[in-house]
Write a structure and sequence with these properties.
Blueprint (H helix, E strand, L loop, with lengths): L1 H9 L14 H20 L10 H6 L6 H11 L5 H19 L7 E3 L5 E3 H22 L8 H18 L15 E8 L5 E6 L2 E5 L7 E5 L1 H8 L5 H6 L3 E4 L6 H7 L5
Parallel strand pairs: 3-6
Antiparallel strand pairs: 1-2, 3-4, 4-5, 6-7
Helix pairs in contact: 1-5, 1-6, 2-5, 2-6, 6-7
């Protein structure tokens, strides 16, 4: 299990070891603990067990471009940084999440950041990706390998991104740039199999039937692709190592598509 591997890793890392430009190992684990706490509340129907006044309103007002500020405010209020305490909390929360998920429809929708909605399966897929991305950060900081199962990684696009697009992403992708008119279709094709076509239509991202002749076709190793999406490895690095390839009728339109269908990095 990814959580067990993550917590075994952080047991060997000094809590104050710098992991990213702004977070230590303890900060990173605290961030993950806040995510599991919020997810328990979303599935259980109560309020998050976090000392953050107005958290629901903060989350509802957040977009992709302001997620870093939301996290800063949450971690400013949630001050626990003892890794054993955080680890125990995460174990309990994940156990509760899985127990709840066993008894509810995986397609049941829950409210998420920015007024977006997604199925329960998408919520759990997002959590799995968060655990892997931040575990990779910690592993990089201490120069040890972190393996991300490509099947697990593929769920981020196949279940989370597809789910939040299908259910409605609310204000999550709001921006103040000029909206490009017309349609750009992008087919995502992971090495693990299966294809999905997203399209940007007059500034709105939608999920469409698989387009056999898309404007852009992305073929990728899911683990590398997720790390690239979140700014952990560069696009040039991924392409040169043949972990990601771009083709299609109009591949030069991919940056325009990704300017809207973007992720925090």
């Amino acid at each position: 299990m990814v959580l067990r591997r993550l917590l075994s890793l952080v047991d060997t890392v000094p809590p104050d070891r710098a992991v990213t430009a702004h977070w230590s190992a303890a900060d990173t684990v605290a961030h993950l603990a806040t995510i599991t706490a919020v997810n328990v509340a979303l599935l259980g129907g109560g309020g998050p067990d976090l000392p953050v006044p107005g958290l629901n309103e903060l989350r509802a007002a957040t977009t992709v471009d302001t997620i870093a500020e939301m996290n800063r405010q949450i971690l400013g209020r949630f001050t626990e940084r003892s890794i054993p305490v955080l680890a125990a909390r995460m174990r309990a929360d994940v156990q509760q999440l899985l127990a709840i998920a066993e008894h509810i429809d995986p397609l049941r929708e829950v409210s998420w950041i920015g007024g977006a909605r997604m199925p329960v399966a998408g919520l759990l897929s997002h959590l799995l990706n968060e655990l892997n991305i931040h575990a990779w950060d910690i592993a990089q900081a201490v120069d040890v390998p972190w393996h991300i199962d490509p099947v697990d990684a593929a769920l981020f696009v196949d279940v989370f991104l597809a789910g939040v697009t299908r259910c409605g992403y609310g204000r999550l992708l709001d921006h103040d740039r000029r909206v490009r008119k017309g349609r750009i279709s992008v087919t995502f094709q992971p090495d693990t199999g299966g294809r999905l076509t997203f399209a940007l239509v007059d500034g709105v991202v939608v999920l469409e039937p698989v387009d056999p002749w898309p404007d852009v076709r992305l073929r990728y190793d899911p683990a590398t692709f997720n790390l690239m999406l979140f700014g952990r490895v560069s696009r040039v690095w991924a392409v040169l190592r043949r972990k990601v390839s771009v083709s299609g009728r109009r591949p030069w339109l991919l940056p325009t598509f990704m300017a809207t269908m973007r992720l925090p990095s």
